Amino acid sequence: MDEERRNVIEEIISTEQHYLDCLEIVRDVFMKTLGSGDIISLSSQEMEVLFINWNDLLHCSKRLFK
């Protein structure tokens, strides 16, 4: 039972780390690229609609992961 419990905990931690990594990739690649106007020019309002609460999600995920 302890082995199974440890495996489940490790899986939860691994999944949360992967989710956090994905959130950071979206922030670092997509949000910065779309916000820069180099390739596609989106207004700040469009960015807010597209990535609503993204930074809050990222912050919350970091807090949970710690």
Please give a structural write-up:
With 66 residues, this protein is mainly alpha-helical. 82% of the residues lie in helices and 0% in strands. The chain is built from three helices and no strands. The longest helix is centred in the N-terminal third of the chain and has 35 residues. The protein is elongated.
Could you give a quick summary of the protein structure above?
The chain has 66 residues and is an all-alpha fold.
Distance between the termini: 25 Å
Helix count, per DSSP? 3
Shape: elongated
Query: Strand-residue fraction?
Result: under 5%
Which percent range fits the helix content? over 70%
Structural class: mainly alpha
Largest sheet geometry = none
Question: Runs with pLDDT <50, length 5+?
Answer: none
* Overall mean pLDDT: 88
Number of strands: 0
H-E order: HHH
Radius of gyration, in Å, reads: 16 Å
